[in-house]
Amino acid sequence: MKASDIAEAVHAKPLAIWNESLLNKEYTAVFATDLMSDALAMIQESPEDTVLVTGLCNAQVLRTAEMLDIKLIIFARGKKLRQEDIDAAEGMDCNLFTTDYTLYETCGRLYSKGISAIS
User: Is the per-residue pLDDT at 119 higher than 90?
Assistant: First the structure.
């Protein structure tokens, strides 16, 4: 599923679009967590094709995404990063969105559209 379709499916609003070409990138998996250590431990296969959904809003999320080469992060529950964290993400080539849905509902909507969950 393309990133632009993912954003539409969960009514996500952009926080930062650093690479517009990534809006046409296909994503095949979703992983939801507020514990970045879980993301590091669980996202092993094709992290570049994985959407990270989280309610944690700090630079740790960005560092984790950078380590895993994740290109799309959706912040759940209407959370938004501080502007200094968004500015720090500029060189990461990672697009950031926010949705008012919970982690559960965001993942459910994506799963119903055919994106698999990482378990």
Answer: no
